[in-house]
What does this fold into?
Amino acid sequence: MNQIHNIPDVKLGLIAVSRDCFVISLSERRRAEVAAAYAKKGGEIYECKVTVENELDMLKAVEDVKAAGCNALVVFLGNFGPETPETLIAKNFDGPVMYAAAAEEHGDDLINGRGDAYCGVLNCSYNLGLRKIKAYMPEYPVGTAEDVADMIADFVPVARTLIGVSNLKIITFGPRPQDFFACNAPIKPLYDLGVEIQENSELDLLVAYKAHANDPRIQEVVEDMAAELGVGNQYPDLLPRMAQFEITLLDWAEENKGARKYVAFADKCWPAFPSQFGFEPCYVNSRLVSKGIPVACEVDIYGALSEYIGMCASGDAVTLLDINNSVPRDMYDAEIKGKYDYTLKDTFMGFHCGNTPLCKLSQGAVKYQLIQNRLLENGNEPDITRGTLEGDIAPGEITFYRIHGSAEGNLQAYIAQGEVLPVATRSFGGIGVFAIPEMGRFYRHVLISKHYPHHGAVAFSHIGKTLYSVFQYLGVPDIAFNQPKGMLYKDENPFA
It folds into this structure.
């Protein structure tokens, strides 16, 4: 399956700053050591040779890194640093900026070899705040060259995500399904983030789909689908319809992204879709995610944004699931209790009809959507309700998260790390048994108390650190997480 270039490549630049009353060579030497340490770790970074002492230096340095093609920047305080010029770097550079500072190196070299960058970071942060300039600060932004190289490595997925979001267009088809107000999407917060929206009707999509009938590329996609599914290709006659739809979406993305570099979709997948297109779109949606283009179910625009953020942050495929059902006690007692360090309330089942990529399932097959079959085909032999990709989600680390526009039009987000357990679900859809520490309290005092919808995005690794930094940089005022036992939520009853 061909990957589509739908997340940014990060090209880093490194600028050192120096207070004019300090030894400039100290900052320049330390800058070179940072660049060398990052290269030793396998990273690539452009080392700007203009050391910034004043505003004119700042302009030269910014032009230099721009000319080198840098889209993310590390500003390094090799000594105390000049407050105004160093913060104006971030103001004048069009992209995410990280600040870090040099630790002192030798106890017997604290006269000419003392840089005072530990102090300088404080004035730097004050001036960033004074000018309301956004910047990324590591958790502890002072260190040796090797330490700073590690900070830069942590910054890369943050930068990649921020660049992606600022160049993203979310393309929608149709309104949310009837009585699915939880998928409501206030537009203003998306514009505040720099995200563009293109809203289309289901009819627009149907017209485009019909225009792709007999497209010469269909057979090639059919063959690719068959090869991917293997024994999971239970409905070979369905593949041409789904291949036609995949080509339709890919062409739409290319023809409509306009001034934007990256796209995500949010589609109305029921109830009219199966009857008009002749299948469920889930398997195609899963394939696009595998290729690098998230497709959110049920016109969940913030779900699509969440998926895209997770894809940039992890560099891997993601999915969108319902926080769906509790784990039955007998199932917990037989297969989880005593084997894994989780209570019953720590567990739940994440599910959706069939949008999770095949590469994230233990074993998957194209099947039919049971619930829609009851609704649209009266439980008879499935035809138009075929097209879901179903199977148990593969066990392993996960991050469950969402960025959301509340009913009041405010941005909020949550992040919870956990895992998918190797427990057979014995159910239908793309589904897994999830375990998140203190999930019961998180469910009550974040998901319910803060009025989150039923959809959450899932990344298949622990990326909470990156996501938290991204949400902070984006200015999300409310970032929740699954608080450990003994750490009470604001509305949690201490006597419960």
Residues 442 and 448 are 9 Å apart (CA to CA). Residues 12-159 form a domain with the Rossmann fold fold (CATH 3.40.50.10940). The first strand starts at residue 12 and ends at 17.
